[in-house]
Batch of 4 targets.
Target 1
Amino acid sequence: MNSLEANIRDNKTKGELNAIRKNGEVPAIVYGGKDENQKVSISKKKLKYLIEKENFLSNIITLNVDGKNLNVLPREVKYHILSDEPTHVDFLRILPGVKIKIEVPVNFINHEKSPGLKRGGVLNIVRRKIELKCPSEKIPDNITIDLDGIDIGESFKISSVKLDSEVTPTIQGRDFVIATLAAPTVMKEPEKPAEAETAEGEPGAEGAEVAADGEKTPAEGEKKDADDKKAPDKKPSEEKK
């Protein structure tokens, strides 16, 4: 589990907020449960490191606030419109028994063991994340799809995923598809039969015709040229006397 050091802040003006940011800190707020919202600030450098890691918004983080550890879930990060630097974070307190909605990433394993992928099949991912409703202390890290033995034409539906009894998808009433293993989009052209290759490669297969006695008859163009040579020259018309 990732952790962050958090400092309690008591700013009341926009200028004080800007001062916090200039000191390399990011303002944040912790909410949820019966306790009041708590204003804190955290290191921007460490926050950016966690954001760059995969699935920041679905991972539980331990905040160390004045020596006390508090488990929270990042719910929203706001960024500067120009610099794209984080400017504010909302954290939700993790309270036992309280159910929340959260998007959990789908993870595919054993690609090399799929006969369908070996034959050129394409893994068509319909949903890269699935929204779940679950107790905050039972949030799964991811939903794992095993491709071992999967062939072209097979699909994965939410019913094939093993979830805790208290963890349910927010989409109810239909067995939605997560991914399919489809046929290649470009099929390999079959090789030509040996006989066809031989026929195409033989000289004289097209054009000249063969007479019954085995000799070649002239092609159409050659015959015309020969006829033109045999034809007598036309005499110039006689002048009228």
Note: Helices lie at 14-22, 44-52, 115-118, 194-201, 220-230.
Target 2
Amino acid sequence: MSLKLRLARAGTKKRPYYHIVLADARSPRDGRFIEKIGHYDPMLADVSKRVTLDAERASHWLSVGAQPTDRVLRFLDAAGLLKRAPRNNPERAVPGKKATERVEARAKAVADKAAAAAAPAEAPAE
């Protein structure tokens, strides 16, 4: 049985609230879980009070072999239990194909307009 440390949603509509749970990887997101080890309230204004985590139980389950999801791994890294390697995806910032085409078309139009404006000024006076 593969174990996951993950979030289970428990809030109402437009008021998210999550429980940090240990569950079997095959069970549904909000379904059956083995143990609740904390909670996460993203609506709180005070960032330091958003996450409450039982560090002792989390470290126990990590030692047994439970795998945290990415969001829970961020919480564990903030608590000092596990190290999260920073991600780097330089391709994410690259504009898409259509956006690149629009920029090129706009640059060509500006260059054509500048060339047309400069052409009559360069013509010899008779």
Note: The mean pLDDT is 90.
Target 3
Amino acid sequence: MGIWFWVLIGVAAVAILIGLFVWSTQNSLTKLRVRVDEAWSDVLVQLKRRSDLTPNLVQSVQSYATHEREVLERIVEARSAVMSAADSGPQAMALADEEFGSALNSVLAVAEQYPKLKANENFLQLQHSLVTTEDKIQAARRFYTGTVRNLNIKVNTFPASLVARALGFTVRPFFEVDDPAALEKAATVEFSGHSSRPE
């Protein structure tokens, strides 16, 4: 056995180690990407659930506040924008959700002016459903943010970044707008002493 034999053995060992590293890194990145997709799907489910409650909210408020047409039209338009943004990704959805939160606050502010509406059992149940849904949305957003952070760290960390780049893995966007303070202000939903804030 000459020196070339040991060189070949060494090259083969290095190739095997590199192959194992690529295989392991690819599996890890794939799992992270699947978790991000799953988390995003959960965000969309919760946003759809809230959107499904909106017609009932509009109907309840409209029956007591018939002259508040502009406010009610705004939330209907905001709901439509949220549903349309579902296929446009997290950043477009965050912008639509920002507007929806602002429109929802306007409708609830109108409701505060009508004691009979505030005392209506159906409206109270609807408020409770909205509070629960807002909490679920925030939980889903936190989970999505965490999974995106984990994927983005892996994609950007050397040497995994070499494999990620070669295999087409990229960083994923967070669910946020350019001005997080504006998002928080607009999407803070007030429900008679209970507030739900984005995380």
Note: The two ends are 65 Å apart (CA to CA).
Target 4
Amino acid sequence: MRPLLGILGGMGPLATADFLTKLVQETPANHDQEHIPYLAYCVPQIPDRPAAILHNGESPLPYMLKGITTLRQGGATAIAIACNTAHHWFDDLERLGELPIIHIADAACAELARLNITTGAVGLLSTDGTVAAGFFQQRLSARGLKCVISTPEAQTTLVKPAIDAVKAGQLAHAHTLAIAAVQQLASAGAQAIILACTETPLAIEFADHSLHAHCIDATRALARACVAWHQKHS
């Protein structure tokens, strides 16, 4: 069976579009026919992921499984999820969805290794839900890396408002907030910072800004991992 990537998106829509753009950018192709074939499922009505983790909100799992089922029925042979927090349900999604899933945190950690960042502290710019889920911290710890989390105040006044601003299409405002959040993590000792919410790269990339730490775009790292997957199975 030829590899066909299924993309579970909609969380949020602009972040999904950003992933699709980066998937194309990261594919070594000279003409159309060399690009990766994919199916994308972008249904924004999936319930809020952080609310489900932190406040016992409606579970997004059945909605995400519906998306994976749709992709599998369309012929997808592996899944990429264009949302970091959604990976809290990774095990259930892979088991019940009956398809392998390319994990975004593993992809981000591979990017750290590619940049030879193997010791020290790594910052995590993410939703409260992703922080609570802990899968980034676990993977960083397993690689001997310390994880630096934004302070509760920064999460409340910078990170969450930046994510919300991207979802509302207010990228200039999101940029200012996200840059301040990155600087706070760098000041706390992070030598590299994982942009571990798919909205945060959009905020950071809105305008040029000199940063004193490596920013690891988890979205782009996932795109690179998908390209590697396709090359391996073609």
Note: The beta strands are 5-9, 38-42, 78-81, 101-102, 121-125, 146-149, 192-195, 214-217.
